[in-house]
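Rotation project, supervised by the postdoc (A.L.). Task for the rotation student: set up a whole-complex structure prediction and record inputs and outputs verbatim in this book. Inputs entered:
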Amino acid sequence: MNELNIKYHNNFLKEVEENIEEGEWIKMCMQCGVCSGSCPLGPYWAHPPQELFMMIRAGKREQVLRSDSMWMCTSCYNCVVRCPRKLPITQIMHGIAAYANNLGMAPKIQPTRDFSILFWKNCTRTGRVNELRLTLGLYFNDGLVAGIKKGWAMRNIGLGLMRAGRLNLFELFKGHECKDQKGIHAMLKKAAEIEQRHKHLTA
Amino acid sequence: MAKKEYAFYPGCSSQLRASAANYLVSTNSMCKVLDIKMTTIPDWNCCGASISYAGGSELSRLVMNARNFALSETHLPDQDIVATCAACWLGAREAKHKLEASPQLLADTNEALHEAGLNYNGKAKIRHMVEVLIEDFGYETLGKPVVKPLEGIKFAGYVGCQTNRPFGIAGESFENPKYLDKLIETVGGEAAIQYEQKVTCCGGALAFSEPEKSQKQIRDIVESAYDQGADMIVTPCPLCQANVEVYQSEINKKYGTRLAMPVTYYSQLMTVAYGGTAKEAGLDGHIIQPKKLQDIADKQL
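Outputs recorded:
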């Protein structure tokens, strides 16, 4: 390894490569900025993808993991198909976000993080999404009063969907669900065990 | 015997009384005319969509998808899995790619699946309904059952993100895919071929968590359809449909606009053109009524 390699091969890049889905691609970024210019929510990122990649290589661990930026990803894959180096940028953004959250470093108030967790809990509870509970769960995330306010503000949309046969109040009690919920929970429990096992092996 | 048979993965939104119930209804009607037998994968589960990355680990999301593959291989061997939802299709295809690329992930996934008495062999192919229509049937065949050409309606073909990227439909470009315009023309409608928002993101799941930012996207998508003189938008994605239709009233409230652009599915266009009733085409499932399409559906032959 020459001097330049040693200088840039800092620990945070290594940490990212080892812990983040598709993280090994980050060193391939050539800083062209096409990803940042292609993002539908581009203006709202404090650090667009190409900047995050450089910050990772420069060892800016705190600034990256505490950032709000990667939570702006809408999973539209525009950056992925345009990247001249073919980096799976969407997946990397999800990976950095998930890693930051697992370390407890994600911003305290982050609606997309909250929605992500809510969605996963919702869909794995019975095997299928309960759309009514998911929506209400999001509305009431900031407390009862905020929830009632949001629900009231959106009442016409809700009524419209009900009239169109696309929203069912009975979902609150019994919604769409899988039959073999026991099997689903058992396999997810096993998956968590397997991941723990791998972690101990590499630690 | 039906002309073609597939294992159907409808996904959470395309169930009766769910947010894309009319996508399911119209898909069933369309398939009936085309003599396509869609057998629902028994006890299929949610794919986790693109948004669950912070809630579920990589392996648990893979296992959820692999459960569907395993169920399909067991109950509907040798049939391609066909999804109508863009996120289901993408989630499933991504999972399949990962399992193909990593023997370790495949072994781990199967170890977890065994807890549910299942095993994944990697056989099932995952396809989108649009792929089936274009590749297994082709525009010419799709045009044959048309009895009510959708004359006098101009459609803005809104392809959106996830049926277009990163996999897309074979032979189409990411920047300007043309299959939806061709489908519109196949059923006798006029396609707004200059519609420049056809692959713009509607915000996806962030329509819930970042409503202001997403509604800005939706406003562009709808206003551009107006600029092109379109009567309605048509899309292959259930989340695009819901987001773009449902939030127009919110945008009107906030910005004083008067948006009221109907948003339909390709399967509804085809059902109506094939002579189906408004109910068979799921036209009763809209907040903004696609009036011109209803008129054709109600017209006696």
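Student's summary: The CA atoms of residues 128 and 176 of chain A lie 6 Å apart.
Supervisor addendum: Chain A is about 60% helix and 0% strand.
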